[in-house]
Amino acid sequence: MSIIGKSASRLEGEAKVTGRAIYTVDVELPGMACGRILRSPYPHARLIEIDARKARALPGVLAVLTREELSEFNPYYGAAYRDQPIVALDKVRYAGDPVAAVAAVDESTAEEALALIELEYEELPAVMTVEEALAPDAPLVHEEAFEQGELQGFQYRAPDEFKGTNICYRFSFKKGDASEGFRQADYIFEDTFTLPAVHHYSMEAHSTVAQFDGERLALWASTQDPFILQNHLAEIFRLPANRIRIIVPYLGGGYGGKLSVKTEPLAVALSWKASRPVKIVHSVEESFKTITRHGARCRIKTGVAHDGRLMARECEIYMDTGAYADAGPRVTQKAGYRAPGPYRIPHMRTDAYTVYTNSVPAGAFRGFGTPQVSWAYESQMDIIAARLGLDPLELRLKNLLDKGEDFTPGDRPVDCDLREGLRRVAEAIGWHLPAGKPNSGKGLSCSMRDGGGAYKLASAAVKMNTDGSVVLFTGTVEMGQGAHTALSQIVAEELSAPLERVVVAQLDTDVTPYDAGTNASSSTVVMGLCVQRAARDLKRQLLARAAKKLKGRVENLTLREGKIHAGEGPGISFEEILTRWFGSRGGEIVGRGFYQDKKSKKAVLGFPTIFWEVSWGAAEIEIDPETGAIKILKYVSATDAGKAIHPVQCSGQDEGAVMTAIGHTLFEEMVYKDGALVNPNLVDYRLPYFNDLPKTFDSILIENQNGPGPYGAKGISEGGLLPVAPAISNALYRAAGVRIRDLPLTPEKVWRALKEKKAEGGRR
Amino acid sequence: MSIIGKSASRLEGEAKVTGRAIYTVDVELPGMACGRILRSPYPHARLIEIDARKARALPGVLAVLTREELSEFNPYYGAAYRDQPIVALDKVRYAGDPVAAVAAVDESTAEEALALIELEYEELPAVMTVEEALAPDAPLVHEEAFEQGELQGFQYRAPDEFKGTNICYRFSFKKGDASEGFRQADYIFEDTFTLPAVHHYSMEAHSTVAQFDGERLALWASTQDPFILQNHLAEIFRLPANRIRIIVPYLGGGYGGKLSVKTEPLAVALSWKASRPVKIVHSVEESFKTITRHGARCRIKTGVAHDGRLMARECEIYMDTGAYADAGPRVTQKAGYRAPGPYRIPHMRTDAYTVYTNSVPAGAFRGFGTPQVSWAYESQMDIIAARLGLDPLELRLKNLLDKGEDFTPGDRPVDCDLREGLRRVAEAIGWHLPAGKPNSGKGLSCSMRDGGGAYKLASAAVKMNTDGSVVLFTGTVEMGQGAHTALSQIVAEELSAPLERVVVAQLDTDVTPYDAGTNASSSTVVMGLCVQRAARDLKRQLLARAAKKLKGRVENLTLREGKIHAGEGPGISFEEILTRWFGSRGGEIVGRGFYQDKKSKKAVLGFPTIFWEVSWGAAEIEIDPETGAIKILKYVSATDAGKAIHPVQCSGQDEGAVMTAIGHTLFEEMVYKDGALVNPNLVDYRLPYFNDLPKTFDSILIENQNGPGPYGAKGISEGGLLPVAPAISNALYRAAGVRIRDLPLTPEKVWRALKEKKAEGGRR
User: Fold this and answer.
1) pTM
2) Do you find a cis peptide bond into B744, omega within 30 degrees of 0?
3) Count of Cβ atoms closer than 10 Å to residue A90 Cβ
4) Pairwise CA distance, residues A693 & A670, whole Å
5) How open is the CA angle A587-A590-A595, to the nearest 5 degrees?
6) A597-622, pLDDT tens digit by residue?
7) Which one, of B248, B249, B366, B294, lies nearest residue B80 by Cα?
8) Per-residue pLDDT tens digits for A225-270
9) CA distance B115 to chain A (A)
10) ipTM summary value
11) Rounded to a whole number, what is the distance in Å from the CA of B756 to chain A's nearest CA?
């Protein structure tokens, strides 16, 4: 292969570094108004009265949207339930909940108008944590059950037993007989781990430009799944899908925070009312108040034989989904399903709950439920090893699933050698060497998630003009991950054409072939297959024509450097074949490719996993005993790429994932005070700095061509996050003997733990 | 059929009448500059020196384009020859020829900059008419031969014998033995007819917005053939086709004047130089100076038997193509080929010439060469009738080709009953009744042209979303003719779905399936077939799926009102089938349709005619003997629609065509003085007013389902123009006994003819 596996320049690289690349915020339309949102200051309150007359009367105000203007629409939407209104109807449910919105000729007029809206609230008691939400007689965030809102075929419903509670979904999963497993176990470990809500923090905040002209809606949106958004908007605004056109400019990062519906309905409703295009661009604070990652509490009970074999596990997971469910139920389901981790555990029992609280809604985030459980099970593995006096590496190697072994019956068997990756990170971190410094230590972790998502449906097209130039049509959003380059490499490889000959068309739901979304690390496999199939379909058409021209058989033709050859001759260029075909320089040929998941009754989740996204991490850290600060001396990440289409981008993705997880591990958490988020900005919300990165940072791509994607590729990039927190926490334990069960591992928390341990040591 | 043949509301009607519809002039891009063009004041001059330094230095000027900035590009382009430069290189060839262009922050700065460009010309003698151009030792408009520029497969070349002349193309055509035919004839008629250049006068002048970002070119353009334009721009700017994206908003009329390349390269070159989007919107005057219809001189010699049978014809046609050939050679070819008209003439000899002059370039215009010859042959038919004492109706009926008879061997035989239409207009005008008023008279005419163009290549796609809503992808430009509505009717009919369910996607060469252009009355047949095939392809996919679901055989399924039925059951909706198919509300199915002309060695023009566009006209006029003014009392137009997809639109097209031709007949002509066009505006260039329209105006659609298009449809709309001038002129003869051979029939010309006739009568 001449293009696959090579690290070409990014197709959109120059446009991005020169500032030419267009993001939604750059879209300007004639007559475009500025949209601004008024948000609730209270975490929970009844909305008694809203008087927008003064705002409406302000010169320059084009539309004011309150609950009184929603009668034309279906005001409720949501990825799992239709529980979220465009603006508050009866209640506000978190501090930041949109109450009203304004479209005005400019930003200052819009801001002024917001200030003129008069509101009367009746404050209600709020539930800010899972504990408060689950307390008996807790105030209810939602009094009623909601229609199922999911458009991708999943069925979510809270069992009847949870009526009148804040639980909106439960996923339960059993394998073997957990009680029996625990009876057989020699040791039983029971620990509870927590991690807080964190924010995605994309470089680009949520942005939308909506233009409803009375007949059709055009939307430029920072969305990872425009076709899903199209369906949501069709329902909300009672429009047929063909009257909604969503165009996705470049996206400045998604990480799950731009899936499903976010601020788009507000922009659309304002445009509808104002009869003008309306742009809404979030501030950082507003994006913080729009979507977050589920904070969670995970109680994990594991039975172990004396030799370290895992015998049984029971998991109880509470996911804090905030005021609206968003993708919470599906995240919960995945957390529950992945609770065994990459280990052989004959007896499993999981209950995972989605819980409403009066905080910012939580939805999809890289890892999608796995970080919440891998933090628990990989921390506990080291607790077990310590207790049994086993090497954490050996304990893991003993319990890891074999390649080809079932994770659960009916699902895709494990598709890589789990031990290989673990041994490689252990070796790279110098596992068997003593720590090089005082107050330092090493930790290991590995994780596995069912990658690629479910209910996947995707398609792609590849067009060749008669001059041999190529246009790729893909619904995969280029959000910084380099998908356009990787997918174009597949086209170029299949057509034996230079990569420069391929251009990716603007993503536009009117014309781009359907794709379910850029999520779940799916693009390389799912869209990659579509693109490969489309390119091969095109090639088949070319070869059939060339065979006539060259009087050869299709089987004997080869493609080399943009030409078709029969044997050793000079070959015939694509351009020549096509020009003869059409008798002119007009015309084109188009190849198409499709992908659709196949349902399986045998699979626990209804669909077999597309591929296993597997990752391993090893950390060496040093603790400052005076401050409790953790410095990462070295981090090694290994990820199973199957086949790296573009190795530099794969490593970049992996490094980025680790960096994100370092933030989650050491600093990040959304802090509420009196029901309100107090750190929705970069000063108070601590992201990793360059100085926080490991001094030495290795990313190992494992390539065994064992993926279902093109050339054996798998999806990567979410995996890298998963081992980070437990690897660092395990290193902390090995460096200083302290075990922290609640993320993040802030200096204060570490310092207190060190102090407590010292005190305990003193007491002993 | 429930939708075909019904006159639905136009799909884009509301958008247009409310002003919402977007035309190129409405496109606004951030940072967009205003482009303006400096034009030559001289009809023919050598460009000695050009100094743009002062213009460049003017604050607010972003780019100045002169011949010095063309080195990166292929500066010459053209539909038939690459004879036209982006801006003048060595010479200017007509008054209006672009010499330089400026992009500036606003219009006034651009205008100011134009005034600062210093030019030195050396005037050359000009040839303003065909006669001057053909005179011995006439100055040459072009000293050199040019590369063939046509991208649609035609080969044009002036024979070597014309080197060193202003003739750039000749089409010669023979059938039988003309000399022998004339020997056998009892009468020989030889007449010379002329008609002047006229302007298309679209409501929307030529407009372009170009945005070249260093890698890709996006162009919003008022073009009738964006894919052809894309190929031209690819050559000019040395870009692969996939780096050029042309978007066509609504078009405010085309009539042939927006085919091929017009001002687009100027906008692109300015954007290239300015690194900004650039908009160029022509004034009316500039559009007048951009493109026109060929003025022509046609000498026609016809041999007739004593009973009125046409025996032989010789035609010599000179088409004034102005300073650049544009589509002139092809127009000339068509004029030559169509010289027999709808009549059986066993012996034919035609020579048609394309001649350069120093006037505004002439290109495609409704009728495409036919008005130049039908004016001649239909006038002469009445001259023959008068001389032989035959009724003009009877003379025509005697000579009209039969249905099924060859026009030329190898071409499509005549596909309608030519006599039927003629009888119908004769009856409607009351042919056999005496004139109702003094100074009034009636005239008849009929005409036939090979419709649909040649080298036609087209494709379409129809997408159905899972909610059953439909998007049609078509390269046919909606330029006021109602094509989007008619094509959507075909989709709706094929899918038994309401018309409201169909939306037409924005035309965008990146994503719209290839189409050779909206011209030659081709859309209903050529694109109509593509659309019908695409809809049927989609239906086939739907039915295959429904058959599984309904456990029926595809053959036994029927579509009714958006549902699929097996027998009498309640049926299953499209939405239900698709949702089950994809397991969710995601997904789509796409049907595709193609059309490609088949070459034929037997056909004179290389391709058989797609359909015969036939039209008949009858006029009753009244002359004011004091002023010579012609008032049209009644006009009857009949057109062979095959099957009218949308009868109201067909009649509207036909009426519009007649109205245009009334202008050409009575008023319109481009007037030059000292080499410069003196009437490029609506004050001096006389278009028809409402008062000029016939008091009674009938449009008869003849529907015999004899066309090759969907449901037997044919293309219409150009045909209606053709009979108008001869019908009115023939009526003038019958009213007042004067025969005018030079259009337009201005009051002055008529008054002079009346006066001369009176004088002659006095002399006799």
Assistant:
1) 0.95
2) yes
3) 12
4) 21
5) 170
6) 988 999 998 899 999 999 999 999 99
7) B294
8) 999 999 999 999 999 999 999 999 999 999 999 999 999 999 999 9
9) 30
10) 0.93
11) 54
